[in-house]
Design a protein that fits this description.
Length: about 80
């Protein structure tokens, strides 16, 4: 293995682990089940939007990690099979 392949493998592993951790940290979307069970929620505007910025940042970071993981996986595959 060349130095480029080792670096790409390390980046690939780290981005994969980061993506899994970010995915597990995100909140679930359980609000839809209240309609089915008949329960109503009387949440205020503050309680509905208080964590929105953190949730959005986690989603954005997960998307970035997924893109990095996909790109490094493709480049690593090409470098191993084709010798690029």
């Amino acid at each position: 293995m060349s130095a480029l392949e080792i670096v790409l493998a390390v980046i690939d592993i780290l981005s994969g682990v980061a993506m899994v951790v970010l995915f597990l940290v995100q909140e679930g979307n359980d609000r839809g089940m209240g309609v089915v069970s008949g329960t109503t929620t009387t949440d205020s505007y503050y309680s509905k939007t208080k964590g929105r910025s953190l949730e959005e940042r986690l989603k954005f970071a997960t998307k970035i990690c997924a893109i990095i993981f996909a790109v490094t996986s493709i480049i690593l595959y090409l470098s191993i099979t084709k010798g690029i």
